Amino acid sequence: MTELALLGPILAAMMTAATPLLFAALGELVVEKSGVLNLGVEGMMLVGAVCGFAAAVTTGSSTVGFIGGAAAGAAVSAVFGVLVLFLLANQVATGLALTLFGIGLSALIGQGFVGIPLADLPELNVPGLTDLPVIGKALFGQDALVYLALFMVPAVHWFLFHTRAGLKLRAVGENQSAAHALGYKVIGIRFLAVLFGGAMSGMAGAYLSLSYTPMWAEGLTGGRGWIAVALVVFATWKPARVLVGAWLFGGVTIAQLHIQGLGIEVPSQLLSMLPYIATVVVLVVISRDVARIRLNAPASLGKVFHPDA
Amino acid sequence: MNRRTLGKTLLGGLAAAAVALGAGGFGAGPAAAQEKLKVGFVYVGPVSDHGYSYQHDLGRLAVEKELGDKVTTSYVENVPEGADAERVIEQLAAGGHKLIFTTSFGFMNPTLRVAQRYPDVKFEHATGYRRSKNVATYAARFYEGRTPLGLIAGKMTKSNIIGYIGSFPIPEVVSGINAFTLALREANPQAEVRVVWVNSWYDPGKEAEAAKALIDQGADVISLHTDSPAAIQVAQERGLYAFGQSSDMTRFGPKAHLTAIVDEWDQYYISRVKAVLDGTWKAEDTWGGFKDKMLYLAPYNPALPQDVVALAEKARTDIMEGKRHSFQGPVKDQSGKVVIPAGQNATDEQILKMDWYVEGVVGKVPK
Fold this sequence. Notes:
By secondary structure, chain A is an all-alpha fold.
C-alpha cells in the first residue's frame, strides 16, 4: 500500500476524531460568549458518556442514548450554573470541581455498565459517493452524529451572529452591566447558555461511548474535554475556526499513529504535543495584538455578575 | 507489568484524588477483628478496566475466598505512578496493613521508601527489580504467552502485516513484541509487525485510533499491550482478528477475538499471604510463566482451524515443559547481527533489559 492511498483513511479517521471535540468546543464557545468560563467540560463529557451509554443499553436505542447523554450533560451543568450564577461562586474553581465531580460520578454510575459491549452505529453509504477516492469515506461514509456535529458549526454561527437572541447573549458576555441596564436578564441568559454547553458536552461524551469506542470505561474521555476548552481559545471564539482546530487536532492525532506504523522515525511524544504547541503559538500570536483580543474575547468572561440595583 | 507513567499529570492526579475520595477508595468493609491479617493492594488502573488491574483484583478476591477467616483485604485503585503512590502506600501501612502488594512498575521507588519507614510491614512489588529486607518482587513471564499468539497470527494473516499496539517502549513490552515476532516469522517468514505506541496503558479512544490506523495500513491481525478492549471492537467492526490482553476480552468482539494472554495472580497471592501467616515469608523474587500458572491463554476462537490451535497448544505445553523457549537462538536483531547464538536461549537479564527489535519488526524502538 502506498503512502498516498493512506490519505483517505486518515481523513476519514480525522473526521471521527474531531467530532467529540467539535461538540464540546462549540458548546463551550457559546458558554464563554455569554461571559461564563466553565472548565468542567471533561466532567460533563464523562457524565454524558456514561448516561448515554446506560440509556442506550437499557432501551436498546442509540437515539435515546444520545438524547440521554445530552440531558445528563445539561443536568450536571445546571449544578454549575446555580453555583456560579446564583450563588456567585468562583467560576474557575467551580469548573474544576465539576470535572472532579464528573469523574467520580461517572465512575459510580458506570459500575454496572462496565464490560458490556454495544453495537456500533450504522454508517452512511451513498452508492457512488462513498466509494470516491480519498474524500469518499471521509465525507460520505460517517455515522449520523458526525454530520450532526458538522451541522452545529453553521448553526451556532448563525445563532450567535444572525439572531436577536444571539446578539443578546453576546451583549451579556461583552458588558454585563450595560446589558443589565438595558433590561436583559443577564443571569437567565447565562444560565441557558450554560445548559446548552452542558448538553453539547454530554453529546460529545455520548458520541465517544456510543460510536467512537462503543463501551463504557472509567475516564473514557481521556482528556478530550480539556482539548475542547483549549480549542475555543485557539479558535478565538469563532465557530468556523473551531472546526478548523478540531480537524487539526484530530488530524495530527491520527497522522502520528500512521507515521509510527510506517516506521518513520519521529518521536511519537513530540507529535502528540503538536496540537498543544499550536494552541500556545496561537495564544502568543493573538496576545501580541491587543485590538484583536478585545474584538474576540468576551470582555466579561469569567466576571461575577451581581446586579447592584 | 509496568503501568502508565504520569502521562496526563493534572488529569491523572485529579482523577486519582476524585476516586480516592469518592466512588472508589478503600474497598474493604468495616474494621474486622484485631487478629486478622490486613492485606492491602494498590492498583494503577480502575478495577473495572477488565484488564490488568481487574486481574489483580481477582487475585485479591481469591485470597479473601481462600483465607477470609484469617485475612481482610483492601485496595486502592486508580493510583497514579509518582508522588501520590507513596502517600497511598504509606496510608495503607499506617492503617495497619501488614502485607501490601503494589502492582505496577512505577510504584517501585515509592514502595521502597515506605518500606524503609515501616520495617515490620511486608511489601510485594510487581514487575520491579529492586528488593530490600521487606520488599519482595514478582512478575509474570508475559512474553511466554506471545509465542503461541505469534504462531496463530502467522497462520491467520493474509496481508502479512500484523499491527501491534504498544503502551510504553519498556523492556517488558519490547520483549513481548520480539517474542511475538519470532514466533510469527517461524509460522510465516513473510509476515512483518508494525508497532504503534500510544504512550498510555489505558486510553480506549487512542487505542481504537491506533487500531484503525494499523488496519488502514493493511494489518489484518492486531496484537496489543495496552489494557482496554477498544482495539478488539475495531477489529470486530472491520471483520478482522485481534488478541486480547491481560484478560479474556471475547465479549467485545466474539468473531475477532482469537485468544488472549490472561494474567493470573490467584495462586501467587494466596501462597504469599499464607507465607506471612506461617511466618515463612521472605523478600525474594518470583518470575513465573505458564508453568507456574501465572498466565494462561483465554479459550481459542472456534473459528481457528484445528491445526493452528494444535500448533499454539504445542508451543504452550513445550514452554511449560521447558522444551521450548520464547527466545531460542539464533536470534538476530534488525541489523542482522546475531544477538542470541544458536543453541542458546536468552538469559533472564537479556529479556529484562531488552531494548532492541528482532528482524521482522518495522521501525526502531523509540529512545
